[in-house]
Amino acid sequence: MSDDEIFAAAYREHYWAVSRYVARRLDGRTSEVEEVVAEVFTVAWRRRADLPASPLPWLYGVARNCLANAVRGQGRRRRLVDRLGNDHTAHRRHFVAGPGTEAPGDWVHEALARLSPGDREVLRLTAWEELGIDEVAVALGCGRRAATMRLHRARRRLRAEIDRLCPALADAHASKDHGHD
To answer: What pLDDT sits at residue 88?
Structure first.
C-alpha cells in the first residue's frame, strides 16, 4: 500500500475515535473539536510516511499536541476579550447553579480536574480511550516503564483527591481494604 492509501485507511478507521478523544477534552465544544480534529489529520497527512502500523496511539499523541496549541490560542483570545472588557460580567450575564444541579459522578470529574494535566491525560488514555500501556507510551511519547509509572502515580493521586472530596467514600474504601487483611 502507498503512503496515501495507508493515510486514507487510518483516516477512515480512526476519525471517530480521534474526534471522541478531542471532544472529551474540549467538553464537546463542536466548532473547536472539528478544528482540532482537522489539524490532527492535516499533521497526519503531512507525516503520512511516518504513520506506524497501529496509528491510533500515534494519532492521540498528535491530538495532544494540537489540543495544547488550541488551548494556548484560546487563552490568548480570552486575554484579548478581557482587555477589551467584553466579558460576561460586563454584560451582566451571571449564571447561578440551582439546587440539585450536581450530576451523578461530578465528584469524579472534580477530583480529576484537581490533578495535573499529565496525570489527567494518562488516566484518560487508559479509561476513556481504553489504551493498553504500550499504546499509552506511544501516545505520550515515552517508554513503557515511564508510562507504567505515570499511570500508577496518577491513579494514586486521583484516589487521594477522591478521598479528600468524598470522605464517606474514603471511609468505605478504607474499611474494604482492612477487611482483606
So the answer is: 44
Q: Is the predicted pLDDT of residue 58 greater than 90, yes or no?
A: yes
pTM beyond 0.90, yes or no = no
Give the chain as a 3 state SS string: CCHHHHHHHHHHHHHHHHHHHHHHHCCCCHHHHHHHHHHHHHHHHHCHHHCCCCHHHHHHHHHHHHHHHHHHHHHHHHHHHHHHCCCCHHHCCCCCCCCCCCCCCHHHHHHHHCCCHHHHHHHHHHHCCCCCHHHHHHHHCCCHHHHHHHHHHHHHHHHHHHHHHCHHHHHHHHHHHHHCC
Residue 129, C-beta contacts closer than 8 angstroms, at least 6 positions apart: 17, 21, 60, 139
What pLDDT sits at residue 92? 43
Measured CA to CA, the distance from residue 131 to residue 150 in angstroms comes to 14
